Task: structure prediction
Amino acid sequence: MRRRGPLAAAALISGLLLAACGSSGGSSNSTQKLSLQASLYGPSKAKVCQGPPVRGGTLVYSRQAATTGLNPIDPKNGNGDIFADNLIYSGLVRSNPDGSTNLEPSLAQSWTISKNGLVYTFHLRPGLKFSNGQPVTAEDVKWSLDRFGNPKINTAMSSVAVGYGTSKVINNTTIQFHLAQRETSFLYDISIFPAFILPKNLVEKEGAAFYNHPVGTGPFIVKSFVRGSHITFVRNPYYWEKGKPYLNSVRFNFVTNSDSRILALRSGAAQIMDGVPFSAIASLRKDSNINVQAAKVPLFLGLWLNHQYKPLQNLDVRKAMQYALNRQEMNQDIFHGLGQIPNSVLMGLRYNAPDSVVHPYPYDVKMAKALMAKSPYPHGFSVTLKYPAGYDYYTQLVLLMQQEYAAIGIKVKLLQEDPATNTTQWNQGAYQLIFPFASFTSDVVVPDEYADFLADWNNGLKGFFSYWRDPTIQAMVLKFKSTISDATRAQEWPKIQQALMNQTPVINVMDLPFVNAHSATTCGTDIDALGSDHLEDTWIAKGKS
Amino acid sequence: MLIYLIRRVALAVVVLFGLMIATFLIIHLVPGDPVRAVIGGNAPPAEINRIRDQLGLNQPLLTQFWHYVSHTFQGHLGQSYSLGIPVGQAIDGRIGPSAALICYALLLSVLIGFPLAIYAALHPNGLFDNIIRLGTTFMFAMPAFWLGLLLALVFGLELHWLPTSGYSGGVGGLLRTLLLPALTLGLPLATVVVRTLRSSLLEVLGSDYIDAARSRGLSMRRIVTRHALRNAVMNTLTVLSVNIGFLIGGTLVVEQVFQIPGMGSLLFGAVEKRDYQLVQAISLLAGSAVVLASLAADLLQAALDPRVRLGGR
Result:
């Protein structure tokens, strides 16, 4: 680690101050910004990472969300628990570590799907073992997935288990699932944490105590867990991917403050951190010992419109609100070019058509004003925008939006609330405009989950608390969800995408990536399409970058 | 003295009961649903309601308050919904780091504050007196998170003398990992110590009996340590005991900056998740600590100054 002089320290202090105050500092050169964006994606390209992986070492990961528990079917603290579960357990299938939206085999080496899309038959890899050495059997799989399909056990994620029917053990390594209704997203639904495979005998015997020393099929085993401080994992000798993981151990330090995480990374106390604030990216990039990595994930800034508020019921008003947003400026000034201008009202998902097919709303104030003039509100109206506190980019974003909407006659009153209050008000419909979540992501990369939330009025979520309803789009979504052929789904979804853009019941302000940073000698930092780190592929190079 | 003690203990019980009522009302009336905060916004409303029924959250507030009070007096602190473990288990293991941090901060504030105050009082309005007063005021004005990050930047990142964050047990680990957090908490308190002690010392050093001691040829060191300090320290003790609450409250921010697994960071997470049982238990514990510290300070004062015992002060 290079030593820096006092002047550099002062510059760093100023950088931290600016980060704390939430200012942005992008330049105006678009070519430079495109280069910035392109070079930020991907793992370290340092010379030491070009060779074969090196076995050994401990990776210290400075994480923004603390792990509070290790029960994959009942995560209490979102990604804090889920990312720890991803190291300990595995499912039948998994997201491809290359970041694409494809699935690949995990514990199951192959599977077949019946012609009617209702029966899935999985064949487990031979010789699979849990981390305590006991064999993984079809009975463990049946038991685990039956829990996944039971909404009284799988409470938090019951929405992805809709349609789960029954299971049947064919033999010790073959299991069959019969869905109650066709859910073409089934493979994606069981690729995530609530469908991880657990040892039936141990969980039934130990109950809640099992999760203090969990046994799974993931690349690592829990060695120690100090709530509020850290969790340490060691290599699972029975992990099914031969030769992996490369690391001897991993330690998650729970560091909720972003400046503290940056300090830990810079000082060498940690080799990797997540949740890099956008305002800190430029400063981190100046350090040649640090690599900033941005992963495309289904994360977006979703602005929810309450259709119980009269002005927002009008389509011309909603379209005007789309045209009035200068997303290019937002992207450069707030997100340092890392955002993606969306062409969907939902986050970036599999089957999304490109911009050439479904066009994003361009920034066009003239068009926005014309639409407002055509609407029942030619002189504009007042509206309150609620947003979560504690995020510098939200503060900057809403101020920009307030100015842009003022230009078309919409007077926006800003109301910052703590995240729990904000989400509750959204659930209760006690809002006019709202960013309901600090981090708004889909749990799966296929559109089924969020399209259903928004468009299927029968799910009881009232248009995902937007109170918008369109029977035509609802029918399109329900048909899409039961379409078996991937190719047909790829054709159907862009039509729904376009229909939703035409109606714009909600507004996707920007698609965003997950931004991590790691030391340049930390190699193989694969992140899949849901933002999960595949630490079984990660290794620490010897020598300097 | 016994009557004084009984009166103070009775008052402490009343204060703690008032704290229970205030905490219960505040956390229950603030918007935010503990079940949704944990399981997410897309869970079906029927399921949310079922869990709320299970947790007793749909009962009238008075009923919930009665259960809270009666269970607390029986020693049952309830279950933390956001952590999925008993509240006692959640708190156990988190008290140590916070207590160590607070004691360390108090110690540093005294070790830094006392010498500076004595020096300033013995050289009033001199250059160093002004530097001390200006410097301590600056420390007091700086927000805790900023001061903490600055200390971590200089001593952790630049000089590599101390870790930037984290916590280790054992005497050596505590002293090393808690030094910067304790300084962050203790430096503003040292300001208070410097100001009050300097002011009290100046007053006491102007007394007749100090003049008498000087005229008897006693050294200034002996005059200060044996005579002046004992009288001057009373106000500082009062101020320190009042600021125990400041120290406890300060752990909320400092533990976040330095990632200390203490009660402050536990409370922060509990408030975020609207974990009523955990918030109530931690608030009661913190309140009890403040009340006890205040009681101890009052008793110490009563022991040192008979006028307090007799109600003359």
Observations:
- The CA atoms of residues 221 and 250 of chain B lie 35 Å apart.
- The longest helix of chain B spans residues 276-304.
- Chain B has two domains: 1-85+267-313, 97-261.
- Residues 1-85+267-313 of chain B form one domain.
